[in-house]
Specification:
Layout lengths: L18 H20 L12 H14 L1 H24 L15 E2 H12 L2 H32 L11 H13 L1 H35 L1 H21 L2 E2 L2 E2 L1 E2 L1 H28 L19 E7 L4 H5 L4 H17 L3 E8 L7 H10 L6 H8 L6 H8 L3 E5 L9 H4 L4 E3 L18 H13 L7 E7 L25 H6 L3 H5 L2 H26 L4 E7 L5 H4 L6 E8 L2 H5 L7 E2 L9 E3 L3 H8 L10
Parallel strand pairs: 1-4, 5-9, 5-10, 6-13, 7-8, 7-9
Antiparallel strand pairs: 2-3, 6-11, 6-12, 10-11
Helix pairs in contact: 1-2, 2-3, 3-7, 4-5, 4-8, 5-7, 5-9, 6-7, 7-8, 9-13, 11-19, 16-19
InterPro entries: Alkaline_phosphatase_core_sf (IPR017850), Sulfatase_N (IPR000917)
Protein name: Sulfatase N-terminal domain-containing protein
Keywords: Membrane, Transmembrane, Transmembrane helix
Amino acid sequence: MPVFTRSSDSSQPGDGVSEAEEEQAGGEREEDEREAAAAPGPGHAPSPTLPGHRLTRLRAWRTRHPRAARALRLATTALAAALVLGALLLPNTLPALKAAGFARIPAEAVIGAVVVLALPRRPRLVAAVLYGLGLTVLTTVNLLDMGFNEYLGRGFNAALDWDLLPDAQAYVEDTLGGGVATAVTVGAVVLVLLVAAVMVAATIRLAHVLARHRVRATKGALIAGTVWVTCSALGLTLFGGPIASERGAGALRVHAQRTVESLRDEAAFVRQSKADTFGNTPPGELLPDLRGKDVIFTFIESYGRSAIEDPVMAPGVDRTLDASTAALEKAGFAARSGWLTSATYGGSSWLGHSTTMSGLWIDNQRRYRTVSAGDHLTLTKAFQKTGAWDTVGVMPGVQKGWPEEKWYGLDKLYDAFDLGYQGPKFSWSTMPDQYALEAFQRRVHGKKRDKPLMSFVILTSSHQPWAPIPKMVGWDELGDGSVFDAIQKAGNKASDVITDTTKSREEYGRSIQYSVTSLTQWLERYGTDDTVLVFLGDHQPIARVSGNGASRDVPVSIVAKDPRVLDKVADWNWTEGLKPGRDAPVWKMSAFRDRFLKAFGSTPHPSKG
């Protein structure tokens, strides 16, 4: 097999050739030998489809255009270095994504260079590929962290959150259409594969360059390592951050710890969910002080503290709450309001629902699956257990089988297909809240029965992306919902609101006003002396709307005509009316079940599981 050499390759130090020139020549010779090894042997004409032919043509082009070839090599190397450094220094939140954050010395780059320089050719190639795949993982989890922090106010959990990705895909499909959802899904997969290919190519390129310039690269790695250790020891900073960075390793370490802690937490939660303060309470000792009352638990989607206190949303929402309080008082109702800290933020509403009803802190999907598969007593099921109430669920957001119906203790569930709606969808929401409540009245609440009614109602019109938003119509005009056709067509497009933070905040506030108005007008119209309404938010809106660092608090109100009902919660020190005061008590959402059961006469009889 021919070996291509140059006259300068045989030069020795001291023959007028510098060490750097010898190193460069040696590196080019090694590259030429690899190319020659791939070329066809003597007597064989190179096929235009063989790699050797292409390499020969590439060598010929580099010989004819040395400056262009050198510029291309330098540009490729610089791009590869920028990609690797960028991946190692990429933050996991959008606010931290600033140019100054990349003015750092990553320890992982120095260590990677040392490893590459110490390895022979084949192990070096393997190490470079593995390093590139590691950067792909790091970039992917950082991008997921960005998305989760932007929408859910927390980082991605590799042990728990993969189950949420199909839900995200379904949300995009319901909001923007199946074509967009498919494009986003395919685009995400292609992006990950592209990042992997680019990162591996970049690390292989840098490994090759380091090997070609071994002497200078070794000196450079030593200098970079010394500078890193010095900056770290002295705590030197630049642009508000440490010069010596270990961002990449730190991010992976945090995700690994988060995964391990989540797995340990699951085992502890299984034991916790089997113990229950009211697990062995006889039916006759549950909720005796509410016998004969029609009790309605209603969640308003994304109804959070920001709606009442944020300067953009609060003015309109506060006016609605004040007006609704006055209208209810005129109809004979009184209200008390406080705050609950939700187990979720920005989404995953079912975690808020189940936390409130179970008295357990259910802040992830695995906990939800664990508890809903068991027999832990929910507040709604306590009503069913007494035998003194009929229990129903009204859930216009449910569009498929929902096995949790049994766990919640519901005799009957009315989902999106059971309420007779023939009007248009409002983005994700299958029907306006006003229609859902009127259908609840026609099909359930307004019918004569032998027992009082306990209802579990989930309102969805304030679900993101808050476009288009329904408007109130005459209650006698609702019909089958077709009256909303013109309102839906005249509303904002979801795509326009999603991309505009200011508009998202404004439209979110309007959607809360609509939902609260629908519910309180329904109560004015159909409430009786025996009606008790408990309504609350399930979580704060996404971080882009509620703001970075917003609390997880949501408002909760109890409304009734019978003064004895509110007397039972007088020691809660809640604020009069529908708007909780800033200094009103704040409880964890998981505390509500036990407080409610005790307030209305239930006797604890614990079970240990």
